[in-house]
Amino acid sequence: MINLQLILLLVLFAPAAGQSADQRFLAGLHERGLYRLAEVYCTDRLNRPDLSDEERAELAIALSRSLAQRAAESPEELRRPLWDQSQRIIDRFARQYPKNPRLPLVRLQGALGLLARGELARQEAELARNAKPLLDEAKTNLRRAVAELRRLADRVDQQLRRQNASHGNDPAVLSADRLVAIKKHIRYELAKAYRNQAQCYPADSADRANSLVQATELLGPLAGGDPADPTTWKSRIDLIACYRLLADYQTAAGMLEVVFRQELPPPLELRARAEQLRLALATGRLDDAAAVLARRRQIDGVGSAELDYARLEACLAAYRTAAEANDPAQAKLWQAKAMESAEQIERCYGPCLVQRAAMLLGREFRAAPATGNLDVLVSVAEGLYRIGKIDDALALYDKAVAQATRSGDAARAFKLGYTAAAIEHQRGRHERASDRYRRIAAAMPENPKAATAHLTAIYLARAKPQAASAKPQAALLEEHLRLWPAGPGAGKVRLQLGQLYERSRDWPRAIATYRDVPPDNATYRRAVEAVGRCYEAWLAALHSAGKPTAQIAAEAADRFESLLADRHGRLVEHWGPLQRYAALQAARLRMNYTSGGSARAEFLLQAIERLQRDGTQLTTSEQRGIKLLRAKTIARSGAADDALAAYRSLTEEYPRDGAIQEEYARLLSGRDDRQSLGAALERWRMVEKKSPPQSDRWFRAKYAIAILHYRLGNPQQTAKMITLLRLLHPELGGPAMKRKFEALLER
């Protein structure tokens, strides 16, 4: 068990007058877990130039200890900087104050920090699913601790020899008695380091046995010391643990009997009980363990972290045995006792021990067969989440979901699955969170929150790169509409799905999806406008490829005109923005892509203009659309000069509108006089210059320029232009445009 105070027995090493004011104040802060406050206090005091050697050493020890304690109680990903900072305090003190007589105590604190770091990593490795990184860290720091403790032992021996030879009485220098006490403490901690090293290796390995033998050789003389010395009894209990780990259970049991015949202080009595429990578990004697568990966990109000953790281990061992024996009643009983022990640990001790207890519970219930106690699984999962063991928590949440599903508690299964998804969402793992939200929603679509969970899955899926996620996104959106076709988010989902189809140029599916958005949905107008956009793009592509457009355009126009009629088929009296858009779109489709739609388009334009005369305020876009359609109507009527005048006026009013400029250039190209053809050539050059390179309009302008050169009697320029264009852009804007360029080149 890691000593959470990372002890340096300052009481043992303090002057006879007792602890200093600094020591008492810092001890209080550490006891309350106020490590940051202790660090600020120590740092501020260490900046004072008037400190004595003893005060400076005490403060350096307290600062290093506080950082190490905070590291031990922090989440795994935050520990390393704190451990390293704790060690730097020791190293810096040794460099700056090499002759400080309290330097051995400072170095000892540094060694204890390394030991604590290694011990914590070793303890967590016993419970982790992937133990290797933690074991590697434990071995590294324990080796460093052993080396530092051995060097420190040699230095203390040297200082002790000098002290004995000098017979000095300098109060600033550590006395021979205190050096002897320090040396004894170093031996004890070195034995502890060897024992932890042993536990990093398999039970039957030579490395484990060798380290345990070294530990017993150090502990033996200490255990035979003065019974009035607390180190003696601690060493005897640690020696019992070493024999247990060596599987010499008989020797360990005999030593325990001797220990229990003595009257021990409560902390040592409770530590001995913890070792008694572990020995019973190691020998498979659960009845003996149960007898220890039946005793009170405190003596005179004094408790023991070591014993309480061992009690949890014993309860879980009994639970495991009952579960394997298919005894659900006993398994449930021991589960409850284990949870009670874990709750006691959470109430009484710091985050470090609470974290280990939660990890132990998580490992046990992750591996054990289901026993029907869903509350236990959920409680352990919540505990693991609180201490930052997220992956372990999620594994238990998954097990809880499965167990709740098997028991028919669908509502709780959904709630637990939703919680697991929310955890992944909170930690920024959007792809995993999306998958969890989707799975729990699709598995239980009738749950009131299922559609919302699925919408969250859709939202998180959209965060992925577009090219890599278009297909999965479409599948997710389609699934939502299949499961909740009339759900509160269905309109928005249809809009998103239509956008995916639109981006892939699947015009029929995009149009059909947009049209399924109901009129009472908030996204309806956007969907109607998207339908118009898709029809425009689809029909333009068909026209460019020389394919028929009249039937599709007429059907589209009919659909837009249906938005202008009431349920009896009569034209509605009051037109809002949606009706005006539909009327303009229907007129535009009939005018551009049908041969006999001029009259119908003219009727729609007159209706819109009547609205304008009645005071309806038209948007800039609507006004532009009416003017453009009016110009097209004039052109359709055969009044060429009037059409040119109308388009010329539009080009001046909308100089940046590529569609208007292109229409005007096309009208000029339709005349035969040289002046008009020259004007058309200049207009097409302007269109080309202002169009994005390699866009459809850019290629159309290139073709118009080439054919105008031909018509103006300059076929060489035409050939030169097409040859260069084909060299730079072999596809020439697509199959249809390529055929037109090649046909012109062959003339």
How do you describe this structure in short?
This protein has 747 residues and is mostly helical.
How many helices in DSSP terms?
35
User: What integer value in Å does the Rg equal?
Assistant: 42 Å
Q: Roughly how many Å apart are the termini? A: 95 Å
Percent strand:
under 5%
Structural class: mainly alpha
Question: What do these coordinates show?
Answer:
The chain is mostly helical. Among the domains are: 199 residues; 62 residues, no CATH class; 146 residues, Serine Threonine Protein Phosphatase 5, Tetratricopeptide repeat. The protein contains 35 helices and no strands. Helix 4 packs parallel to helix 6. The longest helix is centred in the first third of the chain and has 35 residues.
Furnish the topology, listing elements before pairings.
Layout: H1 10-13, H2 21-31, H3 35-46, H4 53-72, H5 76-96, H6 103-125, H7 132-166, H8 176-198, H9 206-223, H10 230-245, H11 249-260, H12 266-282, H13 286-293, H14 305-324, H15 328-348, H16 351-367, H17 374-386, H18 390-406, H19 410-426, H20 430-443, H21 450-461, H22 466-483, H23 490-503, H24 507-515, H25 524-544, H26 550-562, H27 577-593, H28 598-613, H29 620-636, H30 640-653, H31 658-669, H32 674-690, H33 696-711, H34 715-728, H35 735-745
Helix pairs in contact: 2-4, 3-4, 4-5, 4-6, 5-6, 6-7, 6-8, 7-8, 8-9, 8-10, 9-10, 10-11, 10-12, 11-12, 12-13, 12-14, 13-14, 14-15, 14-16, 15-16, 16-17, 16-18, 17-18, 18-19, 19-20, 20-21, 21-22, 22-23, 23-24, 23-25, 24-25, 25-27, 26-27, 27-28, 27-29, 28-29, 29-30, 30-31, 31-32, 31-33, ...
